């Protein structure tokens, strides 16, 4: 037994040694080198394909494991399949950006070295590739991201983005530019022996002097170059000729000849050196001809005889007419305006970076695909239920969405549609569903739709919507991505074409998440110079998370402490201020002879409008009001009137409103509001009456909640699963934006002074013209011992302006004290008897 074990051990050792011997042999090295070259070629093709197909594959590959992609058989557009798409996404977007393409090139060089080409220095190639990766990732993140901001490619990768942001925060945009140039210059000086002479030539005063001294060359680098060059006899002769010429020649012509030849010899490549060596020897009498030049792969042009002539070509002497005119004394003409570059509104924040989709959470929907058993069971139950009531169908088709499956049936001829519609509850009972919705008939189709909730619904993440090709490549003026339809398509719309949006839904059905999805979409697409937001939040907690981007995206009144409006009194002032901004914008459009904000801004960009005449770039203004019902109850007509004005007129001047309420009743959503808000978003509501109020039809009461909604624009009604964006995700986005350079203050809206409003000073109050409710209001305040404007509003059912005037009159009469910020005023009269004496003395 021990003899058999030792025999097997010797046999395995012999096999291992023979394998090692083969791998160490020339044939083994050649085989490994060929394999490495093919791996590098595969990676290179996959990365090249990524530039063309990466947008289509990104949502399928990002944040997924390689085995998951293979097991679930993802449909990948990359030329090299799942492997190439996975490697390209990881190397380019997650690591070092577009310059990661040097990685397969370096791997290929290793393979070339293994198959027996010894002239390639792996260490030098490694240092070169490492510098290109680090420097290129920073350069790409700083430059290419600004040139191509809406690409699926993270140009500098995660590595470059982090480094560039750290450098930009520490040194600013100019500092990052200087660092990039400095690193490039340092690298050239270290790797190129003749670079010092080249850089010296860039400065005036170096003509006629020896431009490069070979004695300063590092001796170790020179010895390495000698070893490479001496392998070729022709190159060795050329190199020796160079050395002899440099030592023997002291004339200007000799210096110039050597200087012009040496830069070409930097790379120590045989063909360029031979060409430069032969041309001066063969055509030496032609050296003084101005037209003779050598092009070195378009990097720079070396003119052999006359540097002055080349400089003159680059900087031609002015014509006599140009010399006679002083540029500072010339007037700006129309042709000068044509030659000026377009006005760039984003220049003040030119270093602004849009948030990355990496800030959004990716939810694991693995295993939540199409359940064929569930679909087949539901199909059989629908057919049997209809058959039990004497209804036969000719066909049935299922379309599976993230949360809802749509079954389209075609009934036999002679079946009344109303008969199927009346079986809604019976079908829901047979399917054991939370609730179904029957669409009879389907618009534009000869079918009847039955929408059935999935037993295992998927989460539609905001990341999958933002990272989608459709969102990244859209060119809407105000793009809003809401989520996915039943057919799993990204649903988007342009807010500019809505032009206003009404959002309704019961508490906890996804209304606030929907508003966050709208705001997030706008933040991912619009630069702070192009869009401002007015956020009204009576609940005080929903929009407070956006306070960190006040100096980037928010607009407020000049005297307001906070940009997020939570005080009802400030809502009225802000809305009236917005109406004034609207009127001011219309005056600007009229003066510019244009009809829309798009035409106006285009004229301003082309410098056809002068700021000296009051013209300015007009950003879009999006007004978002949460809990609209609460505002209507407290301020009434004073809120509704400016909203109606803005909704009727503000579209052409780039002002758009989004109002949300959890009570879509007729006293909240009045006819005036509905008439001017054609676009509606309805989450689940409690009754069919509320659904008809918001959508003018039933359906919202049959939704399943948790982001399930109906979107209506005119007669079209689309069922959507709203994208889920959680509070921590919004915090990361706002913090990412807030850490960047912003404007000095929030966008200021124009001041609005109402007719005797609450902002009037107490000294200007005339007690001879008291409000009819003055004495009753005084008694109310004294009885409750609470000097609150909202108390007067509630008890007398009046608006804020009138309640404010009453409070100012009470202050002037000495019944209440002055304002104390958010605290109620102090009541100066302690009982009703003292009040009656006070009133009789006024």
Query: Main β-sheet, in a few words?
Result: 9 strands, mixed
The Cα radius of gyration reads: 38 Å
Sheet with the most strands: spatial strand order: 8-7-16-15-14-9-13-12-10
Determine the N-to-C terminus distance: 123 Å
Structural class: alpha/beta
Residues in helix, %: 40-55%
Give the overall shape, derived from the CA principal axes: globular
Structure description:
With 842 residues, this protein is α/β, with parallel strands linked by helices. It has 33 helices and 17 strands. The strands form four sheets. The protein has a nine-stranded mixed sheet with strand order 8-7-16-15-14-9-13-12-10. α2 (26-61) packs antiparallel against α5, α5 runs antiparallel to α6 (122-147) and α16 packs across α18. The termini are far apart.
What key phrases describe this protein's structure?
11% strand; globular; 842 residues; 4-stranded antiparallel β-sheet; alpha/beta; 17 strands; 33 helices; 9-stranded mixed β-sheet
């Amino acid at each position: 037994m021990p003899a058999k074990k030792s025999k097997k051990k010797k046999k395995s050792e012999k096999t291992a040694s023979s394998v090692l011997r083969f791998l160490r042999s020339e044939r083994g090295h050649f085989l490994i080198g060929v394999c490495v070259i093919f791996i590098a070629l595969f990676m290179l093709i996959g990365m090249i394909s990524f530039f063309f197909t990466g947008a289509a594959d990104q949502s399928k590959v990002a944040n997924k494991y390689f085995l998951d992609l293979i097991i679930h058989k993802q449909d990948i557009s990359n030329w090299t399949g799942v492997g190439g798409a996975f490697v390209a996404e990881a190397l380019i977007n997650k690591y070092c950006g577009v310059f990661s393409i040097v990685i397969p090139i370096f791997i290929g060089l290793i393979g070339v070295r293994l198959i027996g080409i010894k002239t390639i220095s792996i260490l030098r190639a490694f240092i070169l590739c490492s510098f290109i990766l680090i420097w290129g990732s920073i350069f790409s993140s700083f430059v290419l991201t600004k040139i191509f901001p809406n690409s699926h490619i993270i140009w500098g990768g995660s590595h470059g983005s982090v480094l560039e942001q750290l450098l930009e925060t520490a040194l600013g945009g100019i500092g990052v530019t200087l660092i990039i140039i400095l690193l490039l210059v340092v690298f050239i000086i270290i790797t190129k022996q003749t670079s010092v002479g080249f850089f010296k030539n860039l400065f005036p005063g170096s003509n006629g002097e020896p431009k490069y001294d070979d004695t300063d060359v590092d001796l170790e680098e020179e010895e390495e170059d000698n070893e490479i060059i001496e392998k070729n006899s022709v190159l060795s002769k050329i190199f020796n000729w160079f050395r002899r010429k440099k030592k023997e020649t002291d004339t200007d012509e000799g210096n110039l000849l050597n200087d012009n030849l040496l830069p070409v010899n930097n790379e120590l490549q045989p063909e360029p050196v031979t060409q430069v060596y032969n041309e001066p020897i063969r055509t030496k009498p032609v050296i003084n001809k101005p037209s003779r030049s050598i092009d070195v792969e378009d990097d720079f042009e070396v003119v052999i005889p006359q540097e002055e002539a080349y400089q003159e070509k680059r900087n031609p002497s002015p014509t006599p007419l140009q010399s006679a005119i002083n540029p500072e004394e010339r007037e700006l003409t129309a042709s000068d305006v044509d030659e000026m570059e377009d006005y760039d509104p984003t220049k003040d924040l030119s270093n602004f970076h849009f948030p990355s989709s990496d800030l959004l959470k990716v939810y694991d929907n693995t295993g939540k695909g199409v359940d064929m058993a569930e679909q087949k069971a539901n199909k059989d139950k629908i057919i049997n239920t209809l058959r039990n009531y004497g209804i036969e169908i000719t066909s049935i088709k299922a379309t599976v969405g993230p949360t809802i499956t749509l079954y389209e049936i075609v009934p036999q001829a002679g079946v009344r549609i109303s008969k199927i519609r009346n079986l809604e509850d019976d079908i829901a009972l047979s399917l054991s569903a939370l609730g179904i919705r029957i669409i009879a008939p389907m618009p534009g189709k000869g079918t009847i739709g039955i929408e059935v909730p999935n037993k295992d619904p998927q989460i539609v993440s905001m990341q999958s919507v933002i990272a989608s090709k459709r969102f990244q490549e859209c060119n809407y003026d105000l793009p809003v991505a809401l989520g996915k339809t039943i057919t799993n398509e990204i649903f988007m719309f342009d807010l500019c074409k809505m032009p206003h949006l009404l959002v309704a839904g019961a508490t906890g059905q996804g209304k606030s998440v929907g508003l966050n999805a709208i705001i997030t979409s706008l933040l991912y697409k619009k630069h702070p110079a192009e869009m401002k937001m007015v956020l009204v939040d009576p609940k005080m907690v929903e929009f407070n998370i956006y306070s960190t981007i006040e100096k980037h995206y928010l607009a407020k009144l000049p005297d307001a402490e906070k940009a997020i409006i939570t005080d009802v009194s400030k809502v009225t002032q802000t809305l009236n201020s917005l109406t004034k901004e609207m009127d001011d914008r219309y005056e600007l459009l009229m003066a510019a002879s244009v009809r829309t904000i798009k035409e106006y801004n285009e004229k301003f960009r082309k410098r056809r409008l002068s700021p000296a005449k009051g013209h300015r770039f007009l950003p879009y203004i999006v007004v978002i009001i949460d809990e609209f019902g609460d505002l209507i109850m407290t301020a009434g007509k004073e809120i509704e009137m400016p909203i109606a004005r803005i909704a009727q007129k503000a579209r052409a001047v780039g002002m758009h409103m989004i109002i949300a309420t959890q009570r879509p009743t007729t006293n909240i959503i009045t006819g005036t509001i509905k008439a001017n808000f054609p676009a509606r978003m309805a989450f689940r509501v409690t009754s069919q009456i509320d659904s008809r109020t918001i959508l003018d039809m039933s359906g919202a009461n049959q939704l399943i909640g948790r982001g399930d909604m109906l979107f209506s624009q005119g007669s079209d009604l689309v069922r959507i699963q709203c994208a889920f964006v959680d509070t921590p995700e919004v915090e990361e986005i706002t913090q990412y934006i807030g850490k960047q350079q912003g404007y000095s203050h929030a966008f200021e809206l124009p001041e609005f002074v109402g007719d005797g409003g609450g902002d009037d000073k107490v000294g200007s109050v005339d007690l001879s013209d008291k409000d009819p409710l003055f004495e009753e209001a005084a008694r109310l305040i004294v009885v409750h011992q609470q000097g609150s404007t909202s108390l007067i509003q509630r008890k007398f059912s009046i608006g804020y302006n009138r309640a404010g005037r009453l409070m100012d009159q009470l202050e002037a009469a000495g019944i209440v004290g002055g304002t104390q910020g958010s605290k109620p005023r102090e009541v100066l009269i302690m009982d009703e008897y003292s009040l009656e004496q006070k009133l009789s003395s006024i």
